Amino acid sequence: MRVGIPVLDDVLGSLPKGKTLTYYIDPEVEGDVFAMQTLYTNLEEGYRCAYVTSTMSPSSVRNRFREFGWELNDFPGFSMVDAYSGFVGSVSEERYVVKDPSNPSELDEVIKRAIRENDLVVIGAFSAMIDLCGEDFIRVAENWTREASNAGSRLVLSFVAWPYGDDVLEKVKDMSNAVVTVGGVHHRVVLGYYYGLLKADWADVNGIAVLFRLVRPGGVRAYIPKILVTGPFNAGKSSFVHAVSNKAVSVDRLGTTVALDHGHVEFKGFSIDIFGTPGQERFDPLLKVLGKEALGVILVVDSANPETFPRAKQMLEATTRFGLPYVIAANKQDLPNALSPEEIRKRMALPENIPIVPIVAKDGKGVYDVLEALLRLLIGGKYDKS
Amino acid sequence: MTSLREMLENVLRDLKSAGDIEASAIVSRDGLLIAADISQNVNAEAFAAMTATMLGAAETATSELGKGIPDRVIVEGKSGKIIATGAGSKALLVVMTNPKANLGLVLLELGKASEKVKELLGG
């Protein structure tokens, strides 16, 4: 079983039996999707999964999943634990029903049964249960983690970190085997959302954090707001941006980019925006403005035209002086006089650890290998495991 | 508790209620979308990148001529206008109007909104 969230899947490897994972969510962020995505991913894998609702009617829950293109009714392995209908006095037809959701012992009993009878139980709004039953309710929930551990099931909690007492917040973290924080960032001008792994007792974790965005349909995507594609005139930057993107726009005049290429790509759970720059020196003033805040650089070079390498090196130095990770795309490998990646490394005096990927941008050959090489640098060594 | 994003979105909403404005966005100077009030079928990220390029190119062009920094860029077309203006050193504000928009009024509202954005983003 996996958690079904990009990057976390690579770092955690799996969601082992008997473990409890908590999504610890900043109230500002629409974070309920994480637990939903974990549930849906594993339904698709054929596991028996149950979703506990205490704040929405079962039909609202199904609609919420549908927003992301996830149809729960398609899976016989799905069941709902209805701890909501009892509040509003409506009749429930779900497999598990809590008749009086404000009665902690009944809630406890039904959820324990769900844990024993399923491979995964997701509590859709754990914080709402604490609001309703009081902060002592955490002790009840601690029993669920034990139940999951004994039954070889898994428990996933969606917990919105409202300003409870510090002891409550700490207890929630302590009782979980793994904690994923979901929050907002305001770094200079990037207003975004991130998730990070706070702890996981079955994996070697060293504090990863990933920006994300929600895609409808689709769910949680790791988000990379800017990758810069640069390189000398006529190296094939625009061809690269268009070959790698799901959709792209360019401002081209007389066959060359005068302003900017902009492309968007959905790749391996990542949502990436790509900015391609003009190559001629006369556009350099604009480059300084648009090149800011990039997270990585792809330098496209014309492998058959070594006279352009000094200019390429100069552009690379201009864009990577803040220590940005970069990869080289050795384009036009189909030409008879194209230099090999190793030859290019020698001529440009590039360090051994810089990836140089052979591509033919016009045919789309190798372009995703370039992206993959850059992602590996961005996410760090952990990404290698996949 | 209102987040910065919500406050920025409120500025855009107020701007729209002044009339004539069909879409608006706050974009970082380097072309990343910060906040937008744009219909779903527009590629907002590409729109943001191009707007920043437009204003950036205009500013480079006029300053190369020794004419200082322009107040705004106005693009006029048969089906509407696009107006981009700076909003502090970090961001710019762009709006799309309907073709019959009262330009004077829009510019006035835009000026006020750009001041608010500048304050919110800290200059």
Can you describe this structure?
The complex is a heterodimer of chains A (386) and B (123). The longest helix of chain A has 15 residues, at 137-151. Chain A has 2 domains: 8-217, 3-Layer(aba) Sandwich (Rossmann fold); 223-385, 3-Layer(aba) Sandwich (Rossmann fold). Chain A has 386 residues and is of the alpha/beta class. Chain A has helices spanning 8-12, 32-44, 58-67, 85-88, 104-117, 126-133, 137-151, 166-175, 237-244, 284-290, 309-319, 341-348, 367-379; strands at 20-25, 49-53, 78-82, 96-97, 120-123, 154-160, 178-187, 190-200, 209-215, 219-230, 247-253, 256-267, 270-276, 296-302, 326-331, 356-358. Chain A has a 16-stranded mixed beta sheet that branches. The two termini of chain A are 15 Å apart. Chain B is built from 3 helices and 5 strands. Chain B has a 5-stranded antiparallel beta sheet with strand order 2-1-5-4-3, with helices on both faces. The longest helix of chain B is centred in the middle third of the chain and has 21 residues, at 44-64. Chain B is globular and about 40 Å long. The two termini of chain B are 22 Å apart. The chains are: A alpha/beta (386), B alpha+beta (123). Chains A and B meet through strand 11, strand 12 and helix 10 of A and helix 1 and helix 2 of B.
Mean pLDDT over all positions of chain B: 89
Kindly state the number of beta strands of chain B: 5
Shape of chain A: elongated
Please name the fourth-level CATH homologous superfamily of the largest domain in chain A.
Answer: P-loop containing nucleotide triphosphate hydrolases
First-to-last CA distance of chain B: 22 Å
SSE topology string of chain B = HEEHEEEH
Q: Number of folding domains of chain A? A: 2
Stated plainly, the CATH topology of chain B is called Beta-Lactamase
What proportion of the residues of chain A form beta strands (DSSP E)? 25-35%
What structural category characterises the helix and strand content of chain A?
Answer: alpha/beta
Radius of gyration of chain B: 14 Å
Anisotropy-based shape of chain B:
globular
Number of helices of chain B: 3
CATH architecture classification name of chain B = 2-Layer Sandwich
Write down the overall mean pLDDT of chain A: 90
Order of helices and strands of chain A: HEHEHEHEHEHHEHEEEEHEEEHEHEHEH
